[in-house]
Design a protein that fits this description.
By secondary structure, this protein is α+β, with helices and mostly antiparallel strands. The protein is built from six helices and 15 strands. The protein has two domains: about 5-125, HesB-like domain (Hypothetical Protein Aq_1857, Chain: A); about 125-235, Ubiquitin-like (UB roll) (Roll). Strands 5-6-3-4-10-9 form a six-stranded mixed β-sheet. Strands 12-11-15-13-14 form a five-stranded mixed β-sheet. The protein binds FE2/S2 (inorganic) cluster.
């Protein structure tokens, strides 16, 4: 029997069994995050990962046995898909039957979509949401970002004065932010950025230097750490 979630995704029983088993084996996680990122030989690629908390921009699908988080941008590409789990000979894994995919590459892991659909997604103005921060924006704020702007440039234009001691030349860590939503869509960090991030206060798996990052998703959610490296050294 298949589970149907209106306007969302369908999951085969074998897929739900598979995800339930994965969650049982990782009991500190309470959901699976499913998403789509730009990559692969055909344009877009599916990804799965464990999740322990929901982001503000997530759609949530609860089938009873499993909970899934899907960010809004990915959801547009996945809507109406059938998620299945198949074991064929040596091959086993999750398979997507996605009505939005115009073509699928031979390995089945990446796909392309209709140009018109892509254009309508691209033409949507991207936004950044800054979560509340005592010093910079106690209430939090959401604003639009231009295509050619980094997170830091958009923040400064909107009055969020994130520190930028090296004037955005990737030579300090004071513009460190944590990308709560939209992290997987970002271009990978350069070696230079990675090295600097290692020194950042409050480093997390989804940390980035805001002067080096161009958001890709419709909504990117940012948390500004409590301290910068400069503040920490001034106080000690
Ligand atoms: S402002 Fe110095 S690294 Fe971003």
């Amino acid at each position: 029997m298949e589970k149907f979630i209106p306007n969302g995704l369908q999951f085969s029983d074998s897929a739900l069994n598979h995800f339930s088993l994965m969650l049982e084996e990782n009991s500190d996680m309470n959901a699976i995050r499913i998403g789509v990122k730009k990559a692969g030989c055909s344009g877009y690629e599916y990804f799965f990962e464990f999740a322990d908390k929901q982001s503000e921009a997530d759609e949530v699908i609860n089938t009873g046995s499993c909970k899934f988080f899907i960010d809004q941008n990915s959801f547009k590409f996945l809507k109406g898909s059938m998620v299945d789990y198949a074991e064929e000979g040596f091959n086993k894994g999750i398979k997507f039957h996605n009505p939005n995919a115009k073509s699928v590459c031979g390995c089945g892991e990446s796909f392309n979509i209709d140009n018109n659909q892509e254009a309508s997604n691209i033409s949507l103005k991207k936004k950044i949401k800054i979560l509340p921060h005592e010093e910079y924006c106690p209430e939090g704020i959401t604003f639009e970002i231009n295509n050619e702007e980094t997170i830091l440039e958009a923040c400064l234009r909107n009055g969020i004065r994130i520190e930028h001691a090296c004037e955005m030349s990737c030579a300090c860590t004071t513009c460190h932010v944590i990308v709560e939503n939209g992290f997987n869509a970002l271009d990978e960090a350069t070696e230079e950025e990675e090295d600097l991030l290692d020194k950042a206060w409050g480093l997390e798996a989804n940390s980035r230097l805001s002067c080096q990052v161009y958001p890709k998703d419709e909504l990117t959610v940012i948390r500004i750490p409590k301290y910068t490296l400069n503040q920490v050294s001034e106080e000690h």
